[in-house]
Write a structure and sequence with these properties.
Helices cover about 30% and strands about 25% of the residues. It is α+β, with helices and mostly antiparallel strands and about 150 residues long. Strands 1-2-5-3-4 form a 5-stranded mixed beta sheet. It is globular, with a radius of gyration of 14 Å. The two termini are about 20 Å apart.
Length: about 150
């Protein structure tokens, strides 16, 4: 089953890839690697109220996981735009997660699982990846989560 068919079977349709909001490009291909710039938890082009703010304050772990899942969906949308076909992805090599959180918020990895789980759902074993998760003081648009990715491509 194709990546997009797998996503569709779970009720997920990839959105239009978000345009950059500053002086960067959304994706870079070098050799057999595709680097995707950090993607916010955009839903229908905006950060919804449920995904704005800090984990450990106004955002629950479950809402944070959903925000991370949206980031992963947006990563795949960027990959599709860059590659033309998600079947070119040989492996998700790495995800980097940034969690907008209070200084004492500990369960950062559980929040980031929202993105990791989506990547494995979409790509199967090719979606298993190395990962970094970092708590940060602020993210653009007051988003709860931002995730970047590196894919190996054919």
């Amino acid at each position: 089953m194709s990546v997009e068919s797998t996503l569709a079977s779970h009720g997920i349709t990839l959105p239009e890839a978000a345009a950059p909001v500053a002086n960067y490009v959304p994706a870079v291909i070098t050799g057999s690697l595709l680097f995707i710039s950090g993607q916010l938890c955009l839903d229908k082009g905006t950060v919804q109220a449920a995904h704005k703010g800090k984990l450990g304050a106004s955002i629950s772990i479950e809402a944070g996981q959903e925000a991370a899942r949206l980031c992963a969906i947006n990563l795949l949308a960027q990959a599709k735009t860059a590659l033309g076909d998600l079947e070119r992805i040989k492996r998700c090599v790495r995800l980097g997660g940034f969690i907008n959180s209070t200084p004492d918020f500990g369960p950062l990895p559980q929040v980031m699982n929202g993105a990791s789980d989506l990547m494995v759902l979409a790509l199967g074993d090719k979606g298993r990846h190395a990962r970094t998760t970092i708590g940060v003081a602020q993210l653009p648009l007051d988003a709860a989560v931002e995730v970047e990715a590196v894919f190996e491509i054919a």
